[in-house]
Specification:
The chain is of the alpha/beta class and about 500 residues long. It is built from 15 helices and 13 strands. About 45% of the residues are buried. The longest helix is centred in the N-terminal third of the chain and has 30 residues.
């Protein structure tokens, strides 16, 4: 009954009496260190568990070399016990034959299916196979998946992991591209959950991924204390997410498949102070520093245009000075606003002063309206920016313009910033500082789609204030613009 850690001089060791607690004692120079036995028990359990894992991995290696059954079949058996659905569009590259049936998981318990995939290593599947959910098969799938070091993430079923791991070396590139999306976070479809239900993330993405697991982080930046007229952009991220339920994963115009090509998820909002603008700006920069250290691209939902300054500062730390495609009714290059150096009308002057922009690779599109002096737009031009006033865009397609833009801003990392007031108020009335005579919605799409091929490292949609548009149309426009930006990010595949 000694006390743990205490030392005692003893001449003999005797076990405790009946019912007394057991103690493991160690003799050191005729001194006894009393330690409770539970420590040794835990250590024994830990080593035993490690041994089991090692044995399982070795067994997995043995099975992986000897089994000819694709993991998609094993996983299909597993999912008979836990019904699940593959991500939307997963089987799009499979022919509508036996392989397609198997890959889509449409086989049911007890069915027989003859499968001939035309690959030597899978030849045994030419014989009918009976699909039965057996515990042994479940264990095999788990062990083989563990052997290949594929760690499950929240919201991903074992079938998804197993199908991802089955990659025939001679696979057709179309099938490979289709299969590669199996573990990517996918928007929740309207046939799985009504569009008025489900999680309130952008496009109802899972919202469970950390930046280390992503290629693109969608992030909300709810801030509007930098506005000069009507506030309300703090509700922009929520409005965009609400209306994004109407979006689907494939772009039927450009054939872009962003969610198949890249791991994209909604990572939530920056915690911005609603009382202290400078503190909020620092918090935004710090938040984006944390995202960018994982090598992700960012897609931000504002928030007023003040947010772009700390984002650009974070971008420059990672990529160096960046080029910029800036769509806006205003140049946002004021020196001060009511005496303040930081506000939604000053970010690009501050960005130039901070050296985070490559000024010869900056284009501002859609600027217009009234000013305080005739040369209000000239400061931008003096820095090397190209300024395209809205009147130059009237009654024309902007595809030729975007060819020139790509020529100017290409050759390095580029950031895309879209202020919703760049559009005419007829298309987006829900904003703080609307200006008449703006871009049309088709022109906005031409601008964003015209950025395809650029080395885009980040993008944003800002200044959406849903409270001034009860129809929700401005938020819907913003959701579509952000989706279009995802479609032109580097690495996005385009379906034929």
């Amino acid at each position: 009954a000694g006390t743990e850690g205490r030392h005692y001089h003893l001449r003999a060791l005797q076990p405790g009496g009946s019912g007394a607690p057991g103690w493991l004692v160690a003799e050191v120079s005729q001194q006894l260190v009393v330690r409770p036995m539970r420590s040794q028990i835990l250590a024994l359990l830990a080593w035993s568990g490690l041994a089991v894992v090692v044995v399982a991995i070795l067994a997995g290696a043995w099975l992986a070399r000897r089994t000819t059954r694709p993991l998609s079949k094993l996983a299909a058996l597993v999912d008979e016990m836990v019904p699940d659905r593959l991500p939307v569009g997963f089987a799009g590259g499979f022919p509508d034959d036996e392989v397609g049936v198997l890959a889509r998981g449409r086989c049911r318990h007890g069915e027989h299916l003859a499968v001939d995939v035309g690959l030597p290593e899978l030849a045994d599947l030419e014989q009918p196979v009976e699909l039965r959910p057996q515990p042994l098969v479940v264990l095999m799938a788990v062990v083989v998946v563990a052997h290949h070091r594929i760690l499950p993430r929240p919201g991903i079923s074992l079938r998804t992991l197993a199908v991802r791991d089955w990659r025939p070396s001679s696979a057709d590139p179309t099938i490979e591209a289709t299969m590669s999306d199996a573990t990517n976070p996918q928007p929740l479809g309207g046939n799985e959950m009504p569009r008025f239900g489900g999680i309130a993330t952008f496009m109802r993405l899972p919202g469970t991924s950390g930046p280390a697991d992503l290629d693109v982080a969608v992030v909300g930046v709810p801030l509007d204390i930098g506005t000069s007229n009507r506030p309300g952009a703090r509700f922009g991220p929520r409005g965009i997410r609400d209306e994004s339920v109407l979006l689907r994963p494939y772009n039927m115009a450009t054939k872009a498949a962003p969610f198949d090509s890249l791991r994209i998820d909604d990572t939530g909002d920056v915690a911005t102070s609603p009382y202290d603008l400078l503190a909020a700006v620092d918090a935004i920069e710090s938040h984006f520093d944390g995202l960018l250290e994982h090598g992700v691209a960012t897609a931000a939902m504002g928030g007023d245009h003040t947010i772009v300054l700390p984002i650009l500062k974070a971008m420059a730390k990672r990529h160096g000075p960046v080029g910029l495609v800036h769509v806006d009714a205003h140049t946002d290059i004021n020196d001060t606003m009511f005496g303040s150096k930081v506000a939604h009308g000053t970010p690009f002057r501050r960005a130039v002063e901070a050296g985070v922009l490559d000024c010869d690779r900056v284009v501002q599109i859609g600027v217009r309206g009234t000013g305080y002096a005739a040369d209000d737009f000239d400061w931008s031009r003096q820095q090397g920016f190209r300024v395209v006033q809205a009147e130059e865009c009237w009654h024309r397609s902007l595809e030729p313009l975007m060819a020139e833009v790509r020529e100017q801003v290409g050759g390095g990392p580029v950031y895309l910033s879209f202020d919703i007031d760049g559009l005419d108020p007829a298309f987006a009335p829900g904003t703080g500082t609307p200006e008449v005579g703006g871009l049309t919605m088709p022109q906005a799409l031409e601008v964003i789609r015209g950025c395809r091929g650029l080395d885009l490292v980040g993008c944003d949609v800002v200044e959406i204030a849903p409270i001034y548009d009860t129809s929700g149309m401005t938020s819907l426009v913003g959701a579509n613009l952000l989706y279009e930006m995802l479609c032109v990010l580097p690495g996005v595949q385009y379906r034929d």
